Amino acid sequence: MKKSIIFITVFAFVLFAFASPLFAFTTKNDDTVNITEDVNDDIYVMGNTVNITGQVNGDLIASGMRLNLNGKVTEDLIAAGGAIDIAGEMMDDIRAAGGSIGIDCKVADDVIIAGGFLDIDPRATIGGDLVIMGERLLIDGAIAGKVTASGSSIVLSGKVGNGVEIGNCESLKIADTAEITGDIVYSAPVEAEIEPGAKISGNVKFTKIEQQTKNINWKSAALPAGIFGGIFGGLFGVS
Questions:
Q1: pTM to 2 decimals?
Q2: How many CB atoms lie within 10 A of CB 97?
Q3: What is the pLDDT of residues 48-63, one digit of tens each?
Q4: Per-domain boundaries in the chain
Q5: Burial track 77-93 (b if 16+ CB lie within 10 A, e otherwise)
């Protein structure tokens, strides 16, 4: 799991260290940021709590301990934080890293997320691929493309349109509501629990691996985001 935490750190650094200094909004680190109006530009926001209910006609780049993203974003969403809830409409890609991430909305293209507790809600729809890495993964909803996953505990209960590949996991459950078009390829110490009602059009390919020793507390996965959020503020004079 060490590679996973390194990924989150690098992700947060790239996210903020190379962002454009031409901000639509600047805030103090401890502010609550509320965006209720429509914004016709790319927008960069950072605060302890960030609430988005307006429409962003451009990219949304957000950092904070708590992100409530309920508006419509016409281009990419890039987010890093402690707890991230995404319930608006995302018209392009999502890239996010955090302690917990929940997605309960329509996403037009790909989703790439990493963190501790990651939840793809039953009402979520993803028009492209899902790349997901964390401690506990709940994958429901409808994913048009491929699911690529890695985590400790993984439950797959939604629809997948182009197969599933799981690099390493400690436990995998395919629920009776799952509908998988294509193969399921996974590596784990024990075989997956596949409930009788699950629909899998392809083959299930299992590779046995040794039980991995846990050495990372995924609940602290948001820490790098906070560290680099501070760098973000220092670099570009957030006040």
A1: 0.82
A2: 28
A3: 999 999 999 999 999 9
A4: 2-236
A5: bbbbbbbbbbbbebbbb
